[in-house]
């Protein structure tokens, strides 16, 4: 019996080892999958990484580890990166969808290292836990570019550049808008993004800090809706049924998808989103602009997902031996009322 257990144990260990070394059979393996609609639960089956593939001559090979497809914003980011790569004959993109799992991102990065890509790009699902794999990339002399989300400050030497938004500023702008909509007093619910994600940590920090200037506004409940519409709706439904939910005047959602879910929950509870309860969110997807036009959402703080052109320019600059700025910051705006309605026809995502 003990002998059989040992044989079994050895087999399991061998299987795990093989999958780590080859990157095979997991969701981490680079694919050329097209982006899915928000909340689409079933990602395309991943293809095994070909670690023996020859590098295409004259091309810059970029391995990109995407978080998943949790929101409309994420779909727009994936599309921007894939479209930009497709239109550029000097770029070869290896795309990997991690289905919201850090372990899949780590496997994908190991697979990119094994394939000797020129540049590794990643949108880290959470801030911490990257030290070991990024050290491996550094040892292999492959530069790493963070796209959209950051990692903890103590590991700043493990990446070359960060391309993305100032999430703290987004949180501050959301708080300013909320204070204005509430006439400086009221109770607010905060729907946070994925626990441990830089976008959630910093949007909360910016909002909470700015709210200290508005002592008559109280954040009565703050809970994660994981950046998805379905969870945003569920969380809002539960809050509306709880004692805190009986007297609320505002909802701050860390992204549009959760705000759109909350809007549904508020309507189903017989209240008017945008009027009875003011809603402020971050991202700026087309559907959020439509909700503003319909009077159901009050302000959207823009966060730019169209990062493909900047990413591949950065990869080319690196290849040409240029030094990149540590932070390539996105320019963003804030939209409410008529300004949002006027901008709607030209929204790109
Ligand atoms: O990291 C950016 C955030 O991630 C976006 O605001 C959100 O929609 C996405 O899922």
From TrEMBL:
<dbReference type="InterPro" id="IPR025997">
    <property type="entry name" value="SBP_2_dom"/>
</dbReference>
<dbReference type="GO" id="GO:0030313">
    <property type="term" value="C:cell envelope"/>
</dbReference>
<feature type="region of interest" description="Disordered">
    <location>
        <begin position="31"/>
        <end position="53"/>
    </location>
</feature>
<dbReference type="InterPro" id="IPR028082">
    <property type="entry name" value="Peripla_BP_I"/>
</dbReference>
<comment type="similarity">
    <text>Belongs to the bacterial solute-binding protein 2 family.</text>
</comment>
<dbReference type="Pfam" id="PF13407">
    <property type="entry name" value="Peripla_BP_4"/>
</dbReference>
<feature type="signal peptide">
    <location>
        <begin position="1"/>
        <end position="29"/>
    </location>
</feature>
<dbReference type="GO" id="GO:0030246">
    <property type="term" value="F:carbohydrate binding"/>
</dbReference>
<protein>
    <submittedName>
        <fullName>LacI family transcriptional regulator</fullName>
    </submittedName>
</protein>
<feature type="domain" description="Periplasmic binding protein">
    <location>
        <begin position="63"/>
        <end position="323"/>
    </location>
</feature>
<keyword id="KW-0732">Signal</keyword>
């Amino acid at each position: 019996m003990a002998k059989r257990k040992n044989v079994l144990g050895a087999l399991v260990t061998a299987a795990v080892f093989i999958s780590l070394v080859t990157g095979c059979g997991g969701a981490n393996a680079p694919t050329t999958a097209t982006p899915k609609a928000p909340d689409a639960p079933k990602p395309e089956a991943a293809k095994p990484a070909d670690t023996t593939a020859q590098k295409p001559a004259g091309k810059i090979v970029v391995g990109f580890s995407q978080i998943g497809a949790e929101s409309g914003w994420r779909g727009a980011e994936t599309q921007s990166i894939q479209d930009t790569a497709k239109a550029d004959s000097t770029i070869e993109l290896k795309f990997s969808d991690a289905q919201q799992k850090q372990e899949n991102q780590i496997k994908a990065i190991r697979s990119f290292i094994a394939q000797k890509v020129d540049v590794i790009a990643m949108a880290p699902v959470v801030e911490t836990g990257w030290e070991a794999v990024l050290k491996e990339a550094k040892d292999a002399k492959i530069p790493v570019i963070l796209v959209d989300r950051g990692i903890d400050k103590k590991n700043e030497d493990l990446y070359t550049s960060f391309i993305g938004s100032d999430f703290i500023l987004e949180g501050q702008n959301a708080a300013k808008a909320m204070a204005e909509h509430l006439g400086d007093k009221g109770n607010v619910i905060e729907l946070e993004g994925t626990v441990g994600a830089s976008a959630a940590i910093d949007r909360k920090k910016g909002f909470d800090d700015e709210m200290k200037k508005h002592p008559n506004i109280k954040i009565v409940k703050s809970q994660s809706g994981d950046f998805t519409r379905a969870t945003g709706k569920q969380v809002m439904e539960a809050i509306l049924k709880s004692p805190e939910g009986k007297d609320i005047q505002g909802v701050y959602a860390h992204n549009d998808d959760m705000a759109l879910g909350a809007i549904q929950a508020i309507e189903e509870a017989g209240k008017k989103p945008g009027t009875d309860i003011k809603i402020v969110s971050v991202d700026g997807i087309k559907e959020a602009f439509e909700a503003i036009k319909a009077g159901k959402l009050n302000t959207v703080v823009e966060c730019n997902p169209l990062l493909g052109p900047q990413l591949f320019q950065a990869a080319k600059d690196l290849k040409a031996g240029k030094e990149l700025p540590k932070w390539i910051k996105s320019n963003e705006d804030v939209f409410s009322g008529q300004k949002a309605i006027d901008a709607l026809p030209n929204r790109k995502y």
